[in-house]
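Inputs:
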Amino acid sequence: MPSQTTSTNGAAANGSAKRGRPGYDQQSVLRIAVDVFNRHGYDATSMGILADNLGISKSAIYHHVPSKGDLLKLALDHALGGLESILEQPEAAAGAADARLEFVLRRTVAVLVERLPFVTLLLRLRGNTEIERNALERRRTFDHKVAALISAARDEGSLRQDIDPRTVTRLLFGMINSIVEWYKPGGSLSPGKLADDVITMAFDGLHGHTAPTA
Amino acid sequence: MPSQTTSTNGAAANGSAKRGRPGYDQQSVLRIAVDVFNRHGYDATSMGILADNLGISKSAIYHHVPSKGDLLKLALDHALGGLESILEQPEAAAGAADARLEFVLRRTVAVLVERLPFVTLLLRLRGNTEIERNALERRRTFDHKVAALISAARDEGSLRQDIDPRTVTRLLFGMINSIVEWYKPGGSLSPGKLADDVITMAFDGLHGHTAPTA
DNA sequence: CCGGGCCGACCGACCGTTCATGAGAAACTA
DNA sequence: TAGTTTCTCATGAACGGTCGGTCGGCCCGG
């Protein structure tokens, strides 16, 4: 029943020769763990279930990672790192606010897709442990910076002014973040077209009375 | 620490005189339980934690409800009942597709707000138990019916045609469903204005090149 | 023969649930 | 009015089971 990775215990296509008995390394354990976490929910995933899915014993997991919480922490760091790096890029800091906003939104969609399972895990946190609360804090910081960008674009006159910018931010993030709940990479919808669709819906809406593009 | 309801054990403002020892009834237990479930996540909420929040013992909970799963089932039925009743109303069945769509979306936002904690619980399910899978199935049925409405509006020419209707549906639901993650009733944003904002963002987008309203 | 990878047995804590019984207010009887 | 019954809500100890995590030792390829 466990969707175990066959034969070569999933030890990741590790090009470099390694000593010792072949098997998992931390990266491949993490990859599979995140998948299982997303399938059952983090809290509902016991180390026993995780071990079944890995095809190794429960105690073997502790050879690769010190605790269940560390597994979560590694995953969340990867997700948050991807998001935070967006705002460090030059295109996010220079130019007209609405152009910067579009850049950030496109990159956010891209990161969601590239690191799909990791970001999925992040977006489903409830903040039960200190690890989760730290991650939620970092995510909130990211959200606030984007919210500031939206306010700037609004003040520039690029965005409609009849909706509270905080409402706009939340609805926008709601739309974008929902991607992790349904997007399947490798399907007919490419990441590029997905980003286009998101931008189109966000800026021009369903009716599509598109303004003459400058 | 538990945010227990003081003095009158929270037995709901029940006007009619009741026999027996005063205390909780099923409804008030359910209300608080759903709140706690939403704060910690359903799986992460133990009956012990729940009992602490109720201010009664763990075993007392079983006087009101036969199991933790039944508590979840009651909550999900309430949420799903609200959503499903939308599509049974006449305004959802007659008239132009885009008018029907707007009606359904407005009512959906309203139900989300009216039954906020219950719908929140529903939207966070992972499908671990049979109860959860049944609920997810009912939710999927609702989504599909709205998706059909979107397709109809598109075929009518009311909606833009450069985005796959399934993508539209998902982004739209992503935006609307996100409400449960941030909306606080009683604040400065009224449910009516919220629905207006959602409709505006969905149909006309952030740029707001609104077409002359007929 | 070293060292990374793994195992089975085990731990204390906590899980959801059960049970026999107590507490307390309304309703009935005298 | 006083006493008794009836009804609902609540209790605390305990059950079998599962949780995250530990420990000591075996496996096996470079």
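Residues 1-16 of chain B have pLDDT under 50 and may be disordered. Flag for discussion at group meeting.
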